[in-house]
Design a protein that fits this description.
four-stranded mixed beta sheet, alpha/beta
Length: 279
């Protein structure tokens, strides 16, 4: 079961980072300074820090080399994808400011797995970094554990900055499940008009789940997923997609299909990337 949490904070394009006194940087730190902090105003944290992690979980630090691999992939598939479509200023302003990487999986007491946690628009914690295969990267695994969370949270930042039409909230008002979404099967969620079970938790999660699923998968995948719902569910999802598409186009100038083409192209480039050299 996928879990994360989201809350609202104000956006600020100015840098929020200060280098700790006595900090000695290594080659990777220098690369992150140039490629994340200076360029995008984002801090990529790979060193394990108690204050940055949830003490409810038994967690392990991220492997150094796998952290390098994920930092390079994240920059290429997520940050540079939005930059390619919208420009550097856009992604510098409208993206989380801290990416915190943990090496192990986080399990809740009931046995569900936490894919990622988010603290407002400022910080995302990504888990399971040590499962990355640098020599043979698994694109499905990377999308499931990392990229989907990034697109999900980016979408939250957009609607928290400029609201979407409240008509979206009126399409399936009686079907939202709140915390009970964890017990909802995918087919049942689709039949109720939600692209994922988590989308049934509340309206804002519903909105951003549509964005992340759409831009990280092919049209064939989307059509098959929506097509597996009953007629009522298909109608609800298509209505929601129409509002989401109109919002992104008219409010932000974002073409969902163009963004998806860029994201998928860059994702498919990963197997040919040098994930070890800091260049």
């Amino acid at each position: 079961t996928m879990l994360w949490s989201c809350s609202e904070d104000d956006l600020d394009s100015n840098s929020i980072f200060n280098t700790p006194v006595g900090f000695v940087s290594n080659e990777f730190d220098n690369w992150l300074q140039i490629n994340y902090k200076d360029l995008y105003n984002v801090e990529f944290k790979y060193r394990f820090e108690d204050k940055e992690s949830d003490n409810e979980y038994n967690l392990l630090p991220a492997d150094y080399n796998k952290s390098i691999a994920l930092a390079k992939m994240t920059k290429y598939v997520w940050l540079e994808a939005y930059q390619e479509l919208m420009g550097e200023r856009f992604i510098r302003t409208y993206c989380p400011k801290i990416l915190n990487l943990v090496g192990s999986v986080a399990y809740n007491s009931q046995g569900s797995v936490v894919l990622g946690t988010a603290e407002g628009v400022l910080k995302i914690t990504l888990y399971n970094g040590n499962a990355i295969d640098i020599q043979n990267p698994d694109l499905d695994m990377l999308n499931y554990w990392f990229f989907k969370t990034m697109h999900h949270e980016c979408a939250h930042i957009l609607h928290q900055s400029k609201s979407y039409s409240t008509d979206f909230n009126l399409i399936t008002p009686g079907n939202y499940q709140a915390g009970s979404w964890v017990n909802l099967k995918e087919k049942d969620a689709l039949d109720m008009g939600f692209i994922t079970p988590y989308g049934s938790s509340e309206t804002q999660e519903d909105f951003v789940e549509i964005i992340y699923v759409y831009v990280t998968n092919t049209q064939e995948y989307w059509d098959a997923l929506v097509g597996s719902a009953n007629a009522e569910g298909q109608g609800y999802i298509n209505q929601k997609l129409g509002i989401v598409r109109e919002y992104l186009t008219e409010t932000w100038g974002i073409d969902m299909d163009a963004l998806r083409e860029i994201v998928l192209r860059r994702t498919n480039d990963i197997p040919t990337m040098d994930l070890e050299t800091l260049n």
